[in-house]
Amino acid sequence: MRLTTAQALVRWMIAQRSELLGGAEVPLFAGVFGIFGHGNVLGLGTALHEVQDDLPTWRGQNEQGMALAAVAFARATDRRQVMAATASVGPGALNMVTAAGVAHANRIPVLLLPGDTFTSRAPDPVLQQVEHFGDPTTSVNDAFRPVSRYFDRITRPEQLMSTLPQVARVLTDPADAGPVVLALPQDVQAEEYDFPAAMFEPRLHRVPRHRPDLAALAEAAELLRTAARPLLVVGGGVRYSGAAREALAFAETHGVPVVETVAGRTLVPHEHPLYGGPLGIIGATSANELAAAADVVLAVGTRLQDFTTSSWTGFAPGVRIVTVNAARFDAVKRAAHAVVGDARETLLELTETLEGWSADPSWTGRAAEERAVWDTHVDQLRHGAAPDGSLTYAQVVGIVNDASGPDDYVLTASGGMPGELHGGWRTGPVKPDASPTSGATMDLEYGFSCMGYEVVAPWGAAMARAQTHPDGLVTGLFGDGSYLMLNSELYSAAFAGHPFVAVLCDNGGYAVIHRLQTNQGAAGFNNMLSDSRGPGADGSVHVDFAAHARALGCTVEDVPADAGVDGLRAAYLDARAAAKATGRPTVVVCRTHPSTWTEAGAWWETGVPETLSGHEAYREAKQRQLRWL
Predict the structure, then answer these.
(1) What is the secondary structure of 436-450 as a DSSP string?
(2) I want to staple 150 with a disulfide (CB 3.0 to 4.6 A). Which of 11, 18, 170, 348 is the partner?
(3) Are 326 and 193 in contact (CB under 8 A)?
(4) 3-state SS assignment for residue 385
(5) Does residue 626 lie within any of the structural domains?
(6) Residue 591 forms beta bridges with which residues?
(7) For residue 203, which of 75, 464, 19 has the smallest C-alpha distance?
(8) Are residues 219 and 187 in the same domain?
(9) What is d(CA 291, CA 280) in angstroms, rounded to the nearest whole number?
(10) 601 domain residue, yes or no
(11) Hey, what's the torsion of the CAs at 570, 571, 576, 579, to 10 degrees?
(12) What is its EC number (predicted)?
C-alpha cells in the first residue's frame, strides 16, 4: 500500500485492538490529543484528518495538559487503552516532557508523537530548531530519552515495520508499561513508501499474565508460614491485574490484615473487617501501626516508594518482605524475596500453596481495631471546624465521598489533597452485580506529584469512564496553586463536551509546602501569597476563580466564605447535576483553611539544615532508616 509514513502510522494504530479487564474488545488507541504546528500539521495532521471517524483527534490548548489528560485516560482504563498526543517540534514537543515523566514514574502507557527537524538538513537551521555544535543528530526530542520506556526517531518510512511491534509491546506489557516516544521528522512524515498490507491487519493485544517461578513461590509460602503477624500490602499492580477480589480472598482465607498503597487505593471496601487502612506518610495511623508491628510483609504490585514506606522507617526492625510484582526491577528492591509474576495468578497459586495456614486470630482482629481508632479521628475532622470557622480539607473530601457512588471516580495529584483523599476516603461496598474485575475508583497521581495534573486529568478520565461507567461522574480536587499552573484544558473539555466536576480549594497559596517549611522550623517564605514578594501580598491582588472558570466555558458554583459545610454540600450536589445536564465541566470554588490537615504521623525524609529546629528529629529518623541501607 502506497502511503506516507504518517498515514501508515495512523492506519496501524487503528488496526490495533485491546481487551479490557472484563473481556470486552476495544481499540488499543482510543484517540489522539493534538496541537498542530509546522512540524506535524501537514504530515501527521493530514493523515489524522483522513481517519477522524476511526481515530478521533481532540484539540488541546497546552501540550503538557493534553498529554497529562492522555495519562489519566490510560489509568482510568486500568492501562488497557491508550491515547496518543502529538505536538510540533520545539517548544510544543518539550511541553510534553513533563507528561512523559508522569507516565514513566507511574508506569502508565501513553504514545507521544512529537514532530522533529528535517532529516535532510537542507533548510537547517529551521524555526524552533536547537542546534548542538558538536552533534547535528540531536534535537530537543532527545530530552524525552530519560522519561521514555521506548524512544525512536523515525528517519526512514520502512523503520515503522520494525519499531511498531515494540511500541505495542511496551504499551501492553505489565512489567514495562510506560511512555513511548516516536520522534517524527517532518520530511519523513510526508515521505511515501510501499508498505505491506499485512501491516494493517487487525491485531488483538492481550495483556500477558506471567505465572510465578514455582521455587520462588514455594519459598515465599514458607516465609509466610513462619509469620506471627503477616501484613498484605495491595499496590497498583493489583489494580492493573484486576486482582482486587483475589487479594481480598487471600486475606480472608489466611486471616491477613490488608492495607493499600496510593496506587492501590479503593480496591478494598472500607468496612471490610481485615482492612487496616491506607499505608504511608499520607495514609492512616492504623495502617502504619500494623506495618510497624508486622514481621512478614507481602507486598503485591507496589514499587515501595518513600511515601509507602515512610522513607523506609515504617516497617519493624528485622521484618521480612516478600514482593509479588510483574517487573523484576521492582520485585528485588531492598533484598526482598522476589516472586515475579502477575498479581492475580500469583495470589491464586500462593493461596493454594498455603492451604491450611492462617494468622493468629488476635493479629487478624487488630486490623478492625486500629482502623476504628482512625475512623474516629477522621470523623472528628469531618465534623470539626477550622480555627477561623472556614472549611477544612477533610470536610471537602467527606462531602464528595458521601455523594459519590460506585460508578463515580475521584482524582488528585499534588499538594495536600492526596493526603486528604488517601487518608480520609472511605471506599463503599462493591456493587452486587459488579464484574469480578471491577477496578479502582480513584486516581492519586503521587508517583510524580505533578501540579496541574489534577486539573486536566478529569478530562481524560471522563472520556475513559464514559465508555465503561456512563452513569458515573469524575471529580477532581485541587488547590488554587494547581489551578493557576495549568487550567487551559478546562476549556478543551468544555469545548469537546466532556463533563466532570472540579472542586477548587482556595487556600491562598502553596499551603502544603508552607507546612513542610514551617514544621521544620523555617520561616514561611514564597509559598503562601501572603509571604511572597510584591505589593499583592497584602491581599489586594486576588484571582476571581469563579469568573475565570466561567470564561473558560465551565459552569460554576461559587461557595460563599461563610456558607459552611451545608453550603458546600449543596453546591457540590448542584455541580454534579449541572455537569450531567450541560455536558461540560462544573467548577466548585470554595475557601479552605490553609493549615488544618489530616495527619498520619509518619516520617518523610527531606533535607533539614542543622540550623533548623527540625534537624534533631531528622537525625533520629535517619538512624531508624539506616538498617535498610
Answers:
(1) TT---SEEE--SS--
(2) 170
(3) no
(4) coil
(5) no
(6) 506
(7) 19
(8) no
(9) 9
(10) no
(11) 150
(12) 3.7.1.22
Q: To which H or E segment does residue 259 belong? A: strand 258-260
Are 147 and 124 contained in the same domain? yes
Check if the beta carbon of residue 148 is closer than 8 Å to that of residue 77: no
Instruction: Check residue 416 and report its DSSP letter.
Output: T
Compute CA 506 distance to the chain's CA centroid, rounded to the nearest angstrom: 23
| pLDDT at site 628 | 76
Query: Which three cell numbers, joined as nine digits, stand for 523?
Result: 520561616
Q: What is the pLDDT of residue 436?
A: 53
Contact yes or no for 504/589 (Cβ under 8 A)? yes
Give dist(CA 595, CA 597) in Å, integer: 6
> Which pTM value belongs to this model?
0.97
Amino acid 93: pLDDT: 97
The per-residue pLDDT for 493 is 98
129-135 contacts: CB < 8 A, separation 24 or more?
129/89, 129/90, 130/90
Q: Are residues 228 and 197 in the same domain?
A: no
For residues 591 and 505, give the distance between their C-alpha atoms in angstroms, rounded to a whole number: 6
328 shares its domain with 457: no
Partnered with residue 82 across adjacent β-strands are 29
Q: Is there a contact between 233 and 265 (Cβ–Cβ < 8 Å)?
A: no
**Co-location of 541 and 490 in the same domain:** yes
* AA identity, residue 570: A
Distance CA 552, CA 585 (A): 10
The dihedral sign for the CA sequence 489, 494, 497, 501: positive
Question: Do residue 200 and residue 223 come from a single domain?
Answer: no
Please, where are the H alpha helices in 226-384? 236-241, 244-254, 285-293, 306-309, 328-331, 343-353, 361-364, 366-383
361 located within any domain = yes
Whole-angstrom CA distances from 605 to 19, 313, 551 are 41, 10, 41
Same domain, 328 and 394: no
The predicted pLDDT at position 435 comes to 61
Tell me, what amino acid is at 309?
T
The tally of domains found in the chain comes to: 3
Distance CA 283, CA 601 (A): 9
Residue range(s) defining the domain that contains residue 426:
384-591
Strands (E) located in 274-408: 275-278, 296-300, 320-325, 337-340
Three cell numbers written together for 234: 495491595
The 8-class DSSP code of residue 561 comes to T
586, exposed or middle or buried, with CB in 10 Å at 0-12, 13-18, 19+? buried
Residue indicated by cell numbers 481524560: 460
Give the pLDDT score at 86. 98
Do 408 and 306 share a structural domain?
Answer: no
Q: Select from 174, 205, 236 the last residue of a domain.
A: 205
The Cβ of residue 23 has, within 10 Å, a number of other Cβ atoms equal to 9
For residue 343, the SS3 value is helix
pLDDT in the model for residue 438: 55
Q: Are 265 and 271 in contact (CB under 8 A)?
A: no
CA-CA distances (angstroms) from residue 234 to 213, 224, 622? 21, 16, 26
Local mean pLDDT, 10-residue blocks, the chain (629 residues): 98 97 95 97 98 98 98 97 97 98 98 97 94 95 98 98 98 97 98 98 96 98 98 98 96 98 97 98 98 98 96 95 98 95 98 97 97 97 90 97 97 95 94 67 96 98 96 97 97 98 97 96 97 95 97 98 96 98 98 94 94 95 85
Q: 3-state SS of 58-127?
A: EECCCHHHHHHHHHHHHHHCCCCCEEEEEECCCHHHHCCHHHHHHHHHHCCCEEEEEEECCCCCCCCCCC
Three-state DSSP class for residue 167: helix
CATH for 242: 3.40.50.1220
| pLDDT at residue 627, as a whole number | 80
